[in-house]
Amino acid sequence: MRGETRGSEKPCLAGSGHELDRGADPGWARALSGLTAELRSRGLDVGIDGRTGVVEATVEGASRRTQRAVLRPHRGRLWWWLRWEEAAGAGRAMRHAPLTPATRTGDAARRIAGVMGPSRTRLH
């Protein structure tokens, strides 16, 4: 299953999680632990779900903000995807955008911290 595009030519997710795709994968575990460590080093609170490949970065302040990244295939490789909430509609659909290859955890963390707001995180 490939996760490149649907009919609209926009990137899309393929699969619904590591646990559903296959057994344990060292690359999966390295990507999760690497991104978690990088985000924590930038001052973010981090939660992970290793079964589904979700990392949640949270900052506290005047308002709590959370950004999710998920591991999914893209262009034949494992990538980090940013998960965005749509503002419209009561159901609030979730959209995903490819972020970086899973091995580039530093780049993924920098971009996630940027989305969270530079004034709320420690810069590297």
Compile the SSE list and pairings.
Elements lengths: L17 H4 L4 H16 L3 E5 L4 E6 L5 E10 L2 E9 L8 E8 L3 H12 L8
Antiparallel strand pairs: 1-2, 2-3, 3-4, 4-5
Helix pairs in contact: 2-3
H and E string = HHEEEEEH
Q: Count the helices. How many?
A: 3
Work out the helicity level. Answer: 25-40%
Mean pLDDT: 76
Could you say which overall geometry the principal axes of the C-alpha atoms support? globular
Question: Strand tally, please?
Answer: 5
Strand order of the largest sheet: 1-2-3-4-5
Looking at how many chains there are and whether they match, the oligomeric state comes to single chain
| Proportion of strand residues | 25-35%
Profile the largest sheet. 5 strands, antiparallel
Low-confidence stretches: 1-21
Radius of gyration: 14 Å
Structural class: alpha+beta
Distance between the termini: 36 Å
Number of domains: 1
Region (Disordered): 1-25
Brief overview:
With about 120 residues, the chain is of the alpha+beta class.
Please tell me about this protein's structure.
The chain has 124 residues and is an alpha+beta fold. It has one domain (18-117). Helices cover 26% and strands 31% of the residues. The chain contains 3 helices and 5 strands; from the N terminus they run H-H-E-E-E-E-E-H. It has a 5-stranded antiparallel β-sheet with strand order 1-2-3-4-5, covered by helices on one side. Strand 1 (45-49) and strand 2 (54-59) form a beta hairpin. Helix 2 crosses helix 3. It starts with 17 loop residues before the first helix and ends in an 8-residue tail after the last helix. Residues 1-21 have low confidence and may be disordered. Residues 1-25 are annotated as: Disordered.
